[in-house]
Amino acid sequence: MSQSNLEKQEAKLKQLNKKIKEEKYKIEQRLGKQIISQANLDYTNLSNDRIKLLAQQFSEFLKEKTVDH
């Protein structure tokens, strides 16, 4: 394969990785907004420590539900 083809493929791969990263970010944002909305959480009470605690509790809850099935 020529150098030019490799460079083109590398550029396509970088572009695809960027798209994947952007889509993951969008999903994370939508998920976070839905959780905050459904739980009626107040943004003023969401410090980094509180967010980490809630994420940990949510994760544990999901793990328990997965095991229960």
Indicate the topology.
Elements: H1 3-38, H2 48-68
Describe the structure.
The protein has 69 residues and is an all-alpha fold. The chain has two domains: 1-38; 44-69. It is built from two helices and no strands.
User: Would you tell me the structural class of the helices and strands?
Assistant: mainly alpha
Give the N-to-C terminal Cα separation.
50 Å
The succession of helices and strands, N to C, reads: HH
**Uncertain regions spanning at least 5 consecutive residues:** none
Radius of gyration: 19 Å
Q: Can you count the beta strands?
A: 0
The tally of domains stands at 2
Which sheet architecture does the biggest sheet show? none
Helix content: over 70%
What would you call the shape? elongated
- Taking all residues together, what is the mean pLDDT? 91
- The number of helices is 2
**Beta fraction:** under 5%
Quick overview:
Helices cover 83% and strands 0% of the residues. It contains two helices and no strands.
Annotation keywords:
69 residues; mainly alpha; 2 domains; 2 helices; 83% helix
